[in-house]
DNA sequence: CTCTAATGTCTAGCGGTGCTAGGGTCGAAT
DNA sequence: ATTCGACCCTAGCACCGCTAGACATTAGAG
C-alpha cells in the first residue's frame, strides 16, 4: 500500500511543479511562450507526461487560474481586514485588486481573459472562483446603497476594476492617474 | 499612367476584401479560425498575397480594429445625438457601447483585446482610435462633475463599460441584469 | 529469486500554425 | 516581336497542440 501512496505523492508533487512552472514561464515571457514543449523541457519530462496530468494546455491554464483566484481572494481580504470605515475599506480593496493584477499579469489573464475551461457564474463554478467573488462581496456589499442588490453592485464594481486593470495593462490607458481613477470610482459608486 | 492607376485601384479593392473577409470569418467562427490559409482560400488567392498587403496577421487584426473603431465612434454619436438631457444621453451612450460590443464581438476584441500592433494613448495613435475616444469624451465630458478632469472621467467611465462588456461576453457575468448595471453606473458616476 | 504483467515514460509523428524563398508566368513598354 | 519587370504560386521552414506505439522499469505472484 505504501508504495502506491508514495507514487501518488510524487505525482502530486509533479503536478504542482507543472502548474508552478507554467505560471512562472507565463509571468516571465507571456502565455504565448508557454508551449507544451517548453513546459515539458523545464520540468525535465517529455510532453506526454503533461497529458497524464491534464487534458491539455487549457486545463493547465485553468489550474493556474484557480491557484491565482485563491491568492487574489486572500490578498483582498488581507488588504481590507485592518481598515476602518467602509469608504476606506472599499478604496483599499480597489487598490489591492489592481495591484494584484499589475503584479501578476499572467495569472490575472488566466483567471479573467484566457480560456481555462472553467465554469463561471454557475453552480458548478469551482470553489476558489466563488470564494474570490465572495471576498469582493463581503466588502462591497456594505456600500451598495438602498435599493441596490449587493450582488449586482459587487458585479458592477468588479467590472469597473476589471476594465481599469485590463485597459491599463494592455496599454489602452496611460498608466499614471491610477489613483485618481480609483478615487473617482470609490467616491461615486460607494454609498457610505 | 492609367494602367498603373488601375492596378493600384485593384490592389486597394483586394486589400479591403482581405479586411472584410477576416472580419467576417472572425465574427462567424472566432479569431482562432482566422488563419492565413483559410483567409487566403476565402479571398481566392495564395497566402503570400496577404503578406504583400500586410506585414502579418497582426496587421490584419489592426486593420479590422481601425475599421471597427470608426464604426463604433459613429454608433456612439448616432445614439447620443438625438437624446435630450445629459443623464439620458450618457445612458444611451452606455447602451450603444455595450450593444456594439455584443453585436460585433470579434471586432471589439480586435480593438480592445487582441494585439493589432496599434499604438494607444499616444500621439502616434491612429486617428480612428483617437476619434472613438473623442466620441465618448464629447458626451461624457459633460457629466464629469466639478473638480474632475473630463479626460480622466471619460477614461474611467469607459473602463467600466469595457469591464462590463468583456466580462459579460466571456461568461464571467450572468448576461441578464445588463440594464440595471448600466443604470447603476450612470446614476452614480454621472453628475447631472 | 525468477518470471510475468502492468505501470510509466519516451521517441516519433500527425495535422495544423505563421511566414518566406525562389521559380515561373504573364502583361507592359520598347 | 521581344525583352523585361511586376506579380503570384508552389513548396517548404520551424513551430504549435496533441497522441500512438515502442520501450524500460518496477511490482507482485509463484
From TrEMBL, chains A, B:
Signal peptide: none annotated. Keywords: DNA-binding, Transcription, Transcription regulation. InterPro entries: Homeodomain-like_sf, HTH-type_TetR-like_transc_reg, HTH_TetR, MT1864/Rv1816-like_C, Tet_transcr_reg_TetR-rel_C_sf. Residues 35-54 bind DNA. SUPFAM superfamilies: Homeodomain-like, Tetracyclin repressor-like, C-terminal domain. Residues 12-72 form the HTH tetR-type domain. It comes from the Bacteria. The keyword rRNA-binding does not apply. Pfam families: TetR_C_33 (PF13305), TetR_N (PF00440). This is TetR/AcrR family transcriptional regulator. It comes from Streptomyces lunalinharesii.
Amino acid at each position: 500500500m505504501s508504495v502506491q501512496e508514495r507514487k501518488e505523492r510524487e505525482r502530486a508533487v509533479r503536478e504542482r511543479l507543472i502548474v508552478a512552472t507554467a505560471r512562472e514561464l507565463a509571468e516571465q515571457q507571456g502565455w504565448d511562450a508557454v508551449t507544451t514543449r517548453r513546459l515539458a523541457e523545464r520540468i525535465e519530462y517529455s510532453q506526454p507526461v503533461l497529458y497524464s496530468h491534464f487534458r491539455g494546455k487549457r486545463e493547465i491554464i485553468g489550474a493556474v487560474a484557480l491557484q491565482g483566484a485563491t491568492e487574489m481572494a486572500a490578498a483582498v481580504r488581507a488588504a481590507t481586514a485592518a481598515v476602518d470605515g467602509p469608504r476606506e475599506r472599499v478604496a483599499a480593496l480597489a487598490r489591492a485588486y489592481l495591484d494584484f493584477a499589475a503584479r501578476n499579469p499572467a495569472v490575472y489573464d488566466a483567471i479573467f481573459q484566457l480560456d481555462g475551461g472553467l465554469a463561471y457564474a454557475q453552480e458548478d463554478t469551482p470553489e476558489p472562483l466563488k470564494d474570490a467573488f465572495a471576498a469582493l462581496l463581503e466588502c462591497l456589499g456594505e456600500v451598495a446603497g438602498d435599493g441596490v442588490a449587493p450582488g449586482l453592485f459587487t458585479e458592477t464594481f468588479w467590472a469597473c476594476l476589471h476594465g481599469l486593470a485590463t485597459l491599463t495593462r494592455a496599454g489602452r490607458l496611460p498608466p499614471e492617474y491610477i489613483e485618481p481613477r480609483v478615487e473617482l470610482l470609490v467616491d461615486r459608486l460607494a454609498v457610505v
